[in-house]
């Protein structure tokens, strides 16, 4: 099963790019961010034509998140993080799909720093950390996926010295990210590509994509119950080079149906480099026992 996250930077304006990528990659579940569309303007018909169902949390001109599935019903469990009833930003949506609980998120940018936007980012992050802990406590397979607007380390940014004053690279923000990981979450892309320069975002300015002058800010975090099923994690970097595309590239993980069996080192080495096979998925989701956290 392939699960992806993609900040589309305007779901209607970039719809041809989104549909082209869905047709090419054929992910089973997709989390989208920055829809930049009110609830009634989500392009459900075009997405259904490709075999996907969807739930979404829209907002006019800004924000907006969605979950798409072609492997069974989407059982929505939450929209909006708990902890602030006055928060009107459409930044979080959560659902059980095919036996996995998925939290799709678009963490605030936080610039300029310091200021109220940065304060909001930190407070939103604290709410995410608290909610994430409650998800882990269930013991179920859970994934947090989306645009975190966090550059975790120097390895995750081209010329880190240029980002020292940016909210994406602020010490408080990076510390919050690692407090989240310390709960037990696994950074899937880093698990597969330790020590490798790999980016998910390239600015529209200064020819950033062609120069590979990017950032890694789109993350897929797996709970321990899900991390044992991790087969692969990649960035569809070439999509960033398409015409009228988002400034983000899609990121995806491939998961086995069951936890991977432990193999002898020599057996693992023999199989290294073998082509990825997509696991079969059931036609209907198994959500028995998954938590419901509407609020």
From TrEMBL:
Cofactor: Mg(2+); Mn(2+)
Site entry: Transition state stabilizer: 149
Residue runs in coiled coils: none
The UniProt record lists the keyword Transmembrane: no
SUPFAM superfamilies linked: DNase I-like (SSF56219)
Top-level taxonomic group: Bacteria
Residues noted as binding Mg(2+) in the record, renumbered to the chain: 7, 34, 147, 149, 247-248
Organism taxonomic ancestry: Bacteria, Pseudomonadati, Pseudomonadota, Alphaproteobacteria, Sphingomonadales
GO BP, one annotated term: DNA repair
Site for Interaction with DNA substrate, residues: 248
GO molecular function terms attached to this record: DNA binding; double-stranded DNA 3'-5' DNA exonuclease activity; endonuclease activity; metal ion binding
Family indicated by similarity: Belongs to the DNA repair enzymes AP/ExoA family.
UniProt-annotated site: Important for catalytic activity, residues: 218
Bound cofactor: record note: Probably binds two magnesium or manganese ions per subunit.
UniProt-annotated stretches for the region Disordered: 255-295
Keyword flag Hydrolase: yes
Compositionally biased spans, kind Low complexity: 267-295
Active site: 106, 147, 248
Name this protein carries in UniProt: Exodeoxyribonuclease III Xth
Keywords assigned by UniProt, alphabetized: Hydrolase, Magnesium, Manganese, Metal-binding
Originating organism: Sphingopyxis fribergensis
Endonuclease/exonuclease/phosphatase domain mapped to chain residues: 4-248
């Amino acid at each position: 099963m392939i699960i992806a996250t993609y900040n589309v930077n305007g779901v209607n304006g970039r719809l041809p790019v989104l549909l082209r990528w869905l047709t090419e990659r054929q992910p089973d579940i997709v989390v989208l961010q920055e829809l930049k569309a009110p609830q009634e303007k989500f392009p459900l018909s075009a997405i259904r034509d490709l075999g996907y169902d969807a739930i979404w949390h829209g907002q006019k001109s800004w924000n907006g998140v969605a979950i798409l599935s072609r492997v069974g019903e989407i059982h929505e469990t939450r929209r909006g993080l708990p902890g602030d009833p006055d928060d009107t930003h459409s930044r979080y949506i959560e659902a059980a799909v095919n036996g996995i609980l998925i939290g799709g998120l678009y963490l605030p940018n936080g610039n300029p720093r310091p200021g109220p936007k940065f304060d909001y980012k930190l407070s939103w992050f604290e709410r995410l950390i608290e909610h994430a802990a409650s998800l882990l406590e269930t013991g179920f397979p859970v994934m947090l996926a989306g645009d975190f607007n966090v550059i975790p380390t120097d390895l995750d940014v081209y010329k880190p010295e240029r980002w020292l004053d940016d909210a994406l690279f602020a010490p408080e923000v990076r510390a919050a990210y690692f407090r989240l990981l310390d709960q037990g979450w696994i950074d899937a892309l880093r698990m597969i590509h330790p020590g490798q320069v790999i980016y998910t975002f390239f600015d529209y300015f200064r020819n950033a994509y062609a120069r590979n002058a990017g950032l890694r800010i789109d993350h897929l975090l797996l709970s321990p119950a899900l991390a044992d099923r991790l087969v692969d994690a990649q960035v569809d970097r070439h999509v960033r080079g398409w015409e009228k595309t988002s400034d983000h590239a899609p990121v995806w993980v491939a998961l086995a149906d069951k936890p991977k069996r432990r193999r002898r080192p020599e057996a693992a080495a023999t199989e290294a480099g073998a082509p990825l096979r997509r696991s079969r998925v059931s036609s209907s989701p198994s959500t028995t026992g998954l938590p419901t956290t509407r609020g």
